[in-house]
Amino acid sequence: MSRLPEALRGEIQVEVLPEFREEESSPEEARYVFSYTVTVYNASRYSIQLMARHWKITQGSGKVQEVRGKGVVGQQPVIGPGQHFRYTSRAILDGPVGVMEGDYTCVDTASQRPFEVPIAPFRLAGPNQVH
């Protein structure tokens, strides 16, 4: 699998906005629920399709979980030139702090050539967490 092709470098961007879900969490049960809204922007002149996801979730305890699967939220969206795709998902941690990072496997719809789009690490933190 190749990294992001030169023609798409800087043209495909991923933005993530995490949020602590206090009403769904239960600290006494070591259950901390976070939602995260992801927006994938395609500023290129090519259509791409998001085929698979890979997440690495590192909890504050040091426990690491890897999640792989087809598409996102049951979809394998095609994102046309100048378009974006947004979805919200969730993660459940055993503590109030964690970090997620990963990548999407996409294809250029014209050539069907697969490539990876990296997702920079982002922090999951409950209220009043300083580290």
Report on the structure:
With 131 residues, the protein is mainly beta. It is 0% helix and 58% strand. Strands 3, 4, 5, 7 and 8 form a 5-stranded antiparallel β-sheet that branches. It has a 3-stranded antiparallel β-sheet with strand order 1-2-6, with no helix packed on it. A hairpin with a 4-residue loop joins strand 7 and strand 8 (113-125). The radius of gyration is 16 Å and the shape is elongated. The mean pLDDT is 92.
In short:
The protein has 131 residues and is an all-beta fold. Helix content is 0%, strand content 58%.
Classify the oligomer.
Answer: single chain
Distance between the termini: 35 Å
Radius of gyration: 16 Å
Structural class: mainly beta
Task: List key phrases describing it.
mainly beta
What's the SSE blueprint?
Blueprint: E1 12-20, E2 32-42, E3 48-59, E4 64-70, E5 78-79, E6 84-93, E7 97-108, E8 113-125
Antiparallel strand pairs: 1-2, 2-6, 3-4, 3-5, 3-7, 7-8
